[in-house]
Amino acid sequence: MPQNLDAVAVRAWCRLALDALGRAREEIDSINVYPVADGDTGTNLYLTVESASQAVDAAFTGHEPSLPSLAETVRAMAHGALIGARGNSGTILSQLLRGMAQVIGGTQGGPGAGAGDGEPRGDADHVDGPTLARALRSAAESAYQAVAHPVEGTVLTVATAAAEAAEGTGDDCGAVARAAYEGACAALDATPGQLAVLGRAGVVDAGGRGLVAVLGALVGALSGRTVAPKSTVHARVEAVEDTAAVECEELPGDESGPAFEVIYLLEADDAAVTRLRARLDRLGDSLVVVGGDGLWNVHVHVDDAGAAVEAGVEAGRPHRIRITHFGVGDAHTTPQPPRERAQRAIVAVVPGEGLAGLYAEAGATTVPAHVGEPPASGELVEAIRRAHAREVVLLPNDAELRHTAAAAAEQARTEGVRVALIPTRSAVQGIAALAVHEPDRRFDEDVVAMTSAAGATRYGELAVAERQSWTMAGICQAGDVLGLIDGDVAVIGSDAARTAVSVLDRMLSAGGEMVTLVLGESVPDTVAEQLEKHVRETYLAVDTVVYRGGRQAALLLIGVE
Questions:
Q1: Which of 142, 168, 346, 518 is the most exposed place for a label (fewest CB within 10 A)?
Q2: What percent of the chain has pLDDT over 90?
């Protein structure tokens, strides 16, 4: 019976691709010589797919106990890759996934697998082999269109070869995926003969190698069989009949390339993005602009990072701006001696600008948590590296981040950092842990004290219901104020202040010495004053401290210790 691609298979594909890139990450990093030899292609691809996988998981969670449609799933995958894309190869991969989603999700070539015509239909629960082959073709074409100056011997070449190999394979999605994978492998092996910098280094293209891993994961998701990993290191090209292929024109990415990589998400219309492409193309190279429908991911290598960001400001609203200095070829930079590692540091995930400031004042390295966009493990690893300490205490401050934080801690340990993960489930537990932190104490003793303080802090939260649903406290309607205690809905109300009072009373019924209140940006000071007065008049000897969480923070966070 022919295999078809459905929502469950897409979810499995994302997870298998993440696992495959996780295993191959270091190898891919080691062969990263184009467009810039900065050794991070494997890491960037991993972070991009991690974001895509998280978005797909969120789509499944949001539809429980039913399943999301195939169209919803592939669109979530593409959107997650878009907002989480890192580096040149990650940005191109996100466009490859978007190109596939346009066909599978029914936004290109007509909506999903129509009766007898082979066209996709937006409400279809699966697609067949010919539709998957068209999706792979759409992926390759859209990726070429996204790159300002396409170069052969790169991931673009590998994607095109995969699409060509998949065509005419039949109705079985598994057979289509297998053909695409084998075509990609053959194209990858040929890349050193197409791009001089690869031939000199004796390696295949790193981005293409990552795409091979992703396509191998697609084969695994459809067949249930693991695809043997492809070796990343290519034998040095010893004999090439057409030496001109190896001695071809020098391309951007060697030592003389731009000094900065600039990446940002951009909210802008199509006309503004067209003008932006032209402007950035004049400023630098390795320009890739992907996305659509008002949201874009912009990637470029430039010498003037400020000008690249300014161009984005003129085009629309840039955010999540990342600027990386390549660290080579800057004659105006005086080499600095290596910075001495600190003995101990705190790394914390914080939801809100105000809390980030509070944690930073306490000496913590912070990682922002945006609504609907939890940080990936790679971001936590980067923060641990940024802390530059021999010992790190990691505070995830969210129950949903426990696996992500554990993966980051494990990665940091392989790099020689001693990491202790304290399973804080709320930012108020992190505040309690920070309050007892003593950097001069023995590491184990400090971790035990911080863990104890966090564990002794009950946490509550106010949130607004987005839709009607069942809760532990009954049925809520959209717009209701929900009072959560230790992650479970305990109170349903219509007024934030009164709901907060009910939550406080329940939390303090078991005793407490200190109440911590963290107010979101939209909550007026009068609410805090009302709650402080209630605690003072009702619970003798209980102190209250109030902080402003700022943007992105919850409506109200409550801690009782």
A1: 168
A2: 44
Which residues is 391 bridged to in the sheet? 344, 418
The residues, ordered by sequence, that sit 6+ positions from 126 with a Cβ below 8 Å of its Cβ are 4, 5, 6, 70, 113
Q: Please name which of 38, 70, 9, 48 lies closest in space to residue 211, comparing C-alpha atoms.
A: 48
Give bridge partners of residue 364 from the DSSP assignment: 346
Cα(364)–Cα(431) distance, integer angstroms: 11
Q: Which residue reads 């971790």 in tokens? A: 447
242 within 8 A of 267, measured Cβ to Cβ: no
Report d(CA 309, CA 290) in Å as an integer. Answer: 16
Residues linked to residue 485 through DSSP beta bridges, in sequence order:
460, 488
Sign, CA dihedral 130-136-138-141, equals negative
Residue recorded with tokens 């195939």:
70
- Residues whose CB falls within 8 Å of the CB of residue 274, separated by 6 or more in sequence, listed in order: none
440-443-444 Cα angle (round to 5): 135
Coil vs helix vs strand at 466: coil
Beta-strand runs (E) in 18-164: 126-127
Q: How far apart are CA 484 and CA 372, in angstroms?
A: 18
Helix (H, G, I), strand (E, B) or coil at 442: coil
DSSP string for 264-292: EEEE--HHHHHHHHHHHHHHEEEEEEEEE
Cβ proximity of 169 and 126 under 8 Å = no
Residue by residue, DSSP assigns 471-534 as ETTEEE-TT-EEEEETTEEEEEES-HHHHHHHHHHHHHTT--SEEEEEEETTS-HHHHHHHHHH
Question: CB of 229 within 8 A of CB of 273?
Answer: no
The token pair at 44 is 């960037």
What confidence tens digit (pLDDT) does each residue in 85-144 have? 888 899 999 999 999 999 998 755 433 333 333 444 445 788 999 999 999 999 999 999
Contact status, residue 543 vs residue 415, Cβ threshold 8 Å: no
pLDDT band per the 50, 70, 90 thresholds, residue 230: low
